[in-house]
Amino acid sequence: MQQFSVSRGLNLPDPVRISRYKRLPELGPAVLFFSGGSALNPTARVLKQYTQNSIHLMTPFDSGGSSAVLRHAFGMPAIGDLRSRLIALADESVLGQSEIYRLFTHRFPKNASLEELHGELVDMLEGHDQLIARVPNPMRRLIRHQLAFFHDAMPSDFDLRGASIGNLILAGGYLNNNQKLDPIIFLFSKLVNTLGTVLATVDARLHLAVELESGEIIVGQHNMTGKETSPIASRIKRTYLTRSLAGGDPVEIEVTPKKQHLIETADMICYPPGSFHSSLIANLLPKGVGKSIARSPNPKVYVPNLGNDPEQFGMSPNETVDALLKHLRADAGEDTPTDKLLNFVVTDEKHAAEFDWAELEAQGVSLIGADLTSTASLPYYDPEKLVCMLLSFT
């Protein structure tokens, strides 16, 4: 089969194209996002109304919140962000699995005793709890089976307070599938009828680390975001993966051929807003990602953050573009042309004024500023406007 490149003019946003996708979302484009955290979830909820074929490659390196509890107990990759994206893309129409959706989004109360919470978990395992009793078989049996694996492996001092049932089901499935994430993510997505594809970029029990220009080494995603610890006070010089929160040498891991194929064949690649290093750059660290992006003939779009991101300390807007290209070329090759890695920077018109337009043009990158916020969305992008803009590139 021969491959050809075809150029066309763009209307941004393109009302005709958007209307077509809205009528037939099952035939919508395969837009691929490198993402993590919850920043993209509101956009994902809107996106599924226009395309049911989006692809979300997500970092499993989170080390804070409820993911940290599970990682500590079972030595597993982080699953909290994967679960939240699966839920954001779940079919919430009358055709969806509303009983399963309610179960998977349920959290144990934070103010109950551990004995009470353990009793509630046992009720779920036995099928007596009302949330799980409403789920029809055979799905109920499948869910109870995964929960049983979690329960049997759960340490005696495991803290269930505030725990997400969806996370516990994913953890049980991970243990039940030879400590592999992809099979249980696939099952979870079928149970909630996820309208898109969600995958961990790599199925690995690794942690994120950064070296600051001050010389300090920070290990663990939760120590970088400024949410659980004080924000960093020096610019990030280097981002890498390591095996333990105790630190250590950088490690390399390669993305699977299947995921490389998804990247290469996506109708568009988006570097979306979110924590710059721990959500976006983290997904670009595995070997094969940059090369696969370079092999894709389709548009590559960077949507920079609007709100304050502590991980971008000391970086100008143009320098985020430079950092993105630097990490992509680390795998794709230092001589890889920019147009193979990035074509457009799309942002709100007010934020666009903060970029050096001439510098981007000299690199071969087009800057597009548009009305992408609303009163309700500030200081972030309006999900509807952002989705309509992105889909106009496909």
Write the layout of secondary structure elements.
Elements: H1 15-23, E1 31-35, H2 41-47, E2 55-58, H3 65-74, H4 80-88, H5 98-104, H6 114-125, H7 130-133, H8 139-153, H9 165-176, H10 181-191, E3 197-200, E4 207-212, E5 217-219, E6 236-242, H11 257-265, E7 268-271, H12 276-284, H13 289-295, E8 300-302, H14 317-332, E9 344-348, H15 349-352, H16 357-363, E10 366-370, H17 383-391
Parallel strand pairs: 1-2, 1-7, 2-3, 7-8, 8-9, 9-10
Antiparallel strand pairs: 4-5, 4-6
Helix pairs in contact: 2-17, 6-8, 8-9, 9-10, 11-13, 13-14
How would you sum up this structure, described in words?
This protein is α/β, with parallel strands linked by helices and 394 residues long. The chain has 2 domains: 15-59 and 203-391, CofD-like domains (Rossmann fold), CATH 3.40.50; 66-200, no CATH class. It contains 17 helices and 10 strands. The chain has helices spanning 15-23, 41-47, 65-74, 80-88, 98-104, 114-125, 130-133, 139-153, 165-176, 181-191, 257-265, 276-284, 289-295, 317-332, 349-352, 357-363, 383-391; strands at 31-35, 55-58, 197-200, 207-212, 217-219, 236-242, 268-271, 300-302, 344-348, 366-370. The protein has a 7-stranded parallel sheet with strand order 3-2-1-7-8-9-10, sandwiched between helices. Strands 5-4-6 form a 3-stranded antiparallel sheet, covered by helices on one side. A hairpin with a 4-residue loop joins strand 4 (207-212) and strand 5 (217-219). The longest helix is centred in the C-terminal third of the chain and has 16 residues, at 317-332. It is globular, with a radius of gyration of 21 Å. The protein starts with 14 loop residues before the first helix and ends with a helix.
